[in-house]
């Protein structure tokens, strides 16, 4: 009597070697997915918290900065310096903290504490702040140095401020300041370069007129 092959031919037997055709969502897999989901949730929450905390920090810093500015406007410069310094240290890394560092220097310059202003600006610039704040910091530094008779150093600070400025008007104004300081420092060649750069590169700014006048004064009679 002939024998028949009674080997089952269901889906499990037709599956390629190495691939299980059993239930996919086994209890073990469900547990693994649950753990992975929990980890992902923790990461998402951490990111959300960091973002919201950062926004809150910026908001608090902005409020503290505005308060310090109001005190400065009222003429209480010693207290303004104290408030600015608090913002700069408490909210370090925020836009308000960078602005507060400039506020410290401005208040000190206005109150005649030039050397302290120079020291704070030098320290601030050593931290490599963004150009938006480094440029005016160099401008303030130039003012302080010029007030103490260090005209060559002042000119270099103004020039650095011009290079970092993010706006053509600000670049041109800084170059005017640099040109003036170079002239007083008896560095005629560098002064001429500043005025010519304004005319050639930033001729559409209001600084062009003064640059042309200063250039003419320095080159009169030379043909």
Describe the overall structure.
With 223 residues, this protein is mainly α. It folds into 2 domains: 51-129; 130-223, Serine Threonine Protein Phosphatase 5, Tetratricopeptide repeat (Alpha Horseshoe). The protein is 75% helix and 0% strand. The protein is built from 10 helices and no strands. It has helices at 11-14, 27-73, 77-90, 95-110, 114-125, 131-147, 151-164, 168-184, 188-201, 207-219. Helix 8 (168-184) runs antiparallel to helix 9 (188-201). It starts with 10 loop residues before the first helix and ends with a helix. The model is unreliable at 1-21 (pLDDT under 50).
Order of helices and strands: HHHHHHHHHH
Overall tally of structural domains = 2
The description of the largest β-sheet is: none
For the record, what CATH class of the largest domain applies? Mainly Alpha
What would you call the shape? Answer: globular
Q: Supply the CATH architecture of the largest domain.
A: Alpha Horseshoe
The quaternary state of the protein chains shown equals: single chain
* CATH-assigned fold name of the largest domain: Serine Threonine Protein Phosphatase 5, Tetratricopeptide repeat
Helical proportion, percent range: over 70%
Mean pLDDT: 83
From the alpha carbons, calculate the radius of gyration and give it in angstroms.
Answer: 33 Å
Please give the count of helices: 10
User: What structural category characterises the helix and strand content?
Assistant: mainly alpha
Provide the CATH superfamily of the largest domain. Tetratricopeptide repeat domain
């Amino acid at each position: 009597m002939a024998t028949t092959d009674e080997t089952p031919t269901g889906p499990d037997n037709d599956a390629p070697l190495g691939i299980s055709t059993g239930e996919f969502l086994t209890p073990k897999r469900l547990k693994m997915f649950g753990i992975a989901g929990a980890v992902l949730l923790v990461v998402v929450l951490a990111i959300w918290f960091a973002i919201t905390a950062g926004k809150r920090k910026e908001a608090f810093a902005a409020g503290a900065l505005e308060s310090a500015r109001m005190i400065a406007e009222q003429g209480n410069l010693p207290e303004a310096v104290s408030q600015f310094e608090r913002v700069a240290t408490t909210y370090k890394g925020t836009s308000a903290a960078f602005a507060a560092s400039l506020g410290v220097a401005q208040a000190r310059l206005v109150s005649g504490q030039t050397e302290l202003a120079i020291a704070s600006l030098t320290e601030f610039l050593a931290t490599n702040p963004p150009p938006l704040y480094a440029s005016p910091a160099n401008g303030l530094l130039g003012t302080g140095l010029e007030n103490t008779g260090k005209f060559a150093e002042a000119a270099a600070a103004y020039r650095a401020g011009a290079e970092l400025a993010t706006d053509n008007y600000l670049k041109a104004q800084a170059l005017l300041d640099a040109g003036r300081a170079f002239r007083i420092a008896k560095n005629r060649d560098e002064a001429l370069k500043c005025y010519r750069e304004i005319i050639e590169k930033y001729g559409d700014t209001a600084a062009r007129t003064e640059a042309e006048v200063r250039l003419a004064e320095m080159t009169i009679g030379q043909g």
